[in-house]
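[INFO] parsing input record for Extradiol dioxygenase
[DEBUG] input buffer:
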Amino acid sequence: MFSGAHVILYSQDAEADRAFIADVLGFPHVDAGHGWLIFKLPPAEVAVHPTDGPPQHEFYLMCDDLDAVLADLAAAGVETTRQVTEERWGRLTAVRMPSGAELPLYQPLHPVAHSL
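[DEBUG] output buffer:
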């Protein structure tokens, strides 16, 4: 029924964040015209969490080895913005994008759906 999902990240410095995703994170991309890059994401999954507040959406990049990813990003000069927390469902942190926005990173410790 569906062929994919399109995620949009709003940025105060879209050009710098696009370069970060392309050059530092190494995501392949197409140019939709005039430097408007659209990136191929790794396999994805979606979860629906309850909330008492207004609906919101979050975007996390998942990884199999959070420590290795953080070491690679640190070597590229990327700042970690949150201490790694150990939750029952996974390990969580975030890094700073050039625009100043945080990009959460997540190593799941639960079964994942993206490879079904």
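[INFO] The chain has one domain: 14-108.
[INFO] shutting down worker
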